[in-house]
Each structure stands twice: as structure tokens, then as C-alpha cells.
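Q: I'm a student working through a structural biology exercise. My instructor gave each of us a protein and asked us to get a predicted structure, then write a short paragraph describing it. Mine is Mobile element protein. I'm not confident about reading structure output yet, so if you can add a plain explanation after the C-alpha cells, that would really help. Here is the sequence I was given:
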Amino acid sequence: MASRPAPGKSGRSQPVDATPSDLDHFSEVVLMRRGRQFGLSAEQKAEIWRRWKAGDSLHEIGRAFDKDHGSIQFLLSKHGGIAPAVRRRSQRTLTLAEREEISRGMASGSSIREIARGLERPASTVSREVARHGGRLMYRASEADQRAWDSALRPKSCWLAHHRKLSLAVASKLILDWSPEQIPGWLKRRYPNNESMRVSHETIYRSLFIQARGVLKKELMQHLRSRRQIRRSVHAKAAGQSRGQIVDAISIRERPAEIEDRAIPGHWEGDLLSGSGNSHIATLVERHSRFTILVKVSSKDTATVVAVLTRQVRKLPASLRRSLTWDRGLEMAKHKTFTVATKVNVYFCDPQSPWQRGTNENTNGLLRQYFPRKTDLSGYSQADLNKVALRLNQRPRKTLDFETPASKLHASVASTG
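A: Happy to help. First, here is the predicted structure for Mobile element protein. I'll explain a few features afterward.
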């Protein structure tokens, strides 16, 4: 006969009303269980953070310590991927050696004043120390030292926590998909004489990834380009990609000097942004202003791509039709057809050299905020793409001294007549 649940309990699991301290304790228990394996010393944890900052992946770090990568991620995610500050004792506080002297002095029957003279400390300091940690009979040096160390942990308050107007301004721009690097530049232009409206991009990142600060809502992380829940090092490794061969390609090394210095508008970089189900979007980025155009393509074959790009480029003013730099993708195999129709020369990057189209590569990274990898891009209309392009073109860029691509291009076209 099946046993019944105990009185007051059902056979179903009950909801848990967990306080923050309960959750912290739960996290510690999980960490301990994950890693019986996880017995890491302070030095090993410091090395994990060093490797993470250097750009090593979770798998690489895990292999180095013979741990599962999930255990490494659990440790890092507790701090949002941001290494906690190294704690140091104040020179004014009692050391463990001094506390051991206090313990030995009391055991031998010395008075508080005698112990204080031996330590060259005020008697009041020794008296408070003993009273705070159990009195003469219960005082233990190691326990007192650990309690003092734990009680001295006072998290540094965040700058944004004390400046509501500033935090609201930051949040309002994050909602518009601005990056944490763009916001400080905009603040300087918007409030040139107000030093209280200043914040670094690192402070914004820390406020987002270290949720204990409670300043910026966690939901705002969804507006970051990467949408990661953990801060990744700028040195993180990125995998390259192989590309095809183009017949009669004009090398990027033959580009005129005016293209290199970005002084004249009308020189573009292009690529295909790919999604699931063999879906693609053509991206064009103007080198002088970083102005972005997105074009819907139904197929990756060269006839389709060249036809779509030709229609788009011919809509541009003559002053903005000077050159196009592309990678080695076979979608531009019919580049001669494009040049004849648009009078725009096409220059091709060296194989496996995406950095030669740095402006376009950076923009494609920005676009992944709106079109994550493995997204079916065929479901987006041209109107949808225009809205995304507008968002990018109205966001200030650090490289433009926080001017927007739209205003930069408009000013350039106006100056050239």
C-alpha cells in the first residue's frame, strides 16, 4: 500500500520563500556540490580570473584545472564575469599575529594595559577587540581574525546609485540599444558643464552585470549587442572563416589612397549577414560616416545578390557612388556586371582577412543584436530592415566623436553640393 504524504504536505513540491541570504547559501551549497571537484585555492581562483581576462574560453580554463566548463562558468557568473577587487587589510587593523599575542597574554594572566604596551597599541583598541570577540574566557585569535575580516567587507556603492538623474539617462539610452561606450560620449556633449552627469562605460557594464548593485534593471541587458549574461574579455578569441575565390578580382591593395583615409564620402564596404535556413541580408556601410544600408536578398547566388545591390546603389546620389570593398564571397563573382551597371569599382579583400573591411565587420557585430545567429532572416521585410538601419544610423559612434552616422553623412553630402 502506497504511503501517504505527511500531514500538512502534498505530494507535489511546495513553493519556496527564499530570502537573499537563503539564495546566497543555496548558491554556496551548489558550488560545493559541483565541485567536490571545485576545491580551488585562492591562488587557483585568481589564475582562473587571469585566464578569463586574457581571453581564454570556459573550455580552455576548465581543461587547465581539470574541471567541467560549467563549473568554471558558475564561478565566473557569480560576479557577472567581472573579477572581484582584491581585498587588502588596512594597516591600522590588528593582524593575526597581534591577535595571537593578545590571546597568549590573556592566557598568561597579563592585563589589557600590559598586552597593549607589548603591541604598542592603545589599551582601548585591545579592550574593544577582546570584548567584541567573546571576552577573556572565550577569545580565540584565529576566530576573531576571521570575523573581523568578514565584517570589514563593505561593498563599494555604485556611482549611479547616488545619481538618479544620471541613472535614468543611462537607462533611457540602453533601451534604445545604445552601447555602454556610446552613452558617456553622448553625456559629455549633452551636459558639457555638468560634471555630475559623467559616468564611464565600465561603471555601466558593472552595474548591469553585477546585479547586487541593483541600480540598472537586469532587463536592460537584453539591449546589449551580445546579450550575454556574463562579461566577456575584449581579448576573447574569435574563430575565422574561409571564403571562396573570385575571378579577375581587383585586390584591395590597388585601392586609391583617398579610400584609405576616409576623407571623401561614397566609398562603401559590403558583406552578407547570414542566418538559418540559408537566409541572408546584404549590408553596406559607408566608410566616411559609417552610414548603414540593409538590403533584403532572397538567395546567396551571385546573380541575385548583384541584381539587388545594383538596384540599391543606383538609388544613391552620384557623389556617394565611388567604390565598394567586398570580401572573397562568391556572391560577388559577377562583380564586373555590377561595375558596368553602377560605374562603381569593386575591390576584394585578401583571403581570410575580414579586418580589411573593419567598418563592415564592426557593423555586422552591431547587427547581431537585432539578428542573432541562427535567426531565420527570410521573415524580415525590407521595411523591417530599414527600421533597424535607422536605429544604427541614429546612434552616436565613438569613432565619430559621438556624432551619428546619419548627421555625419548629411553634413558630408551638403558640403559637396
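A: Here are two points you could use in your paragraph. The longest strand covers residues 267-275. The CA atoms of residues 80 and 210 lie 5 Å apart. It's a good idea to check both against the output above yourself.
Q: Great, thank you!
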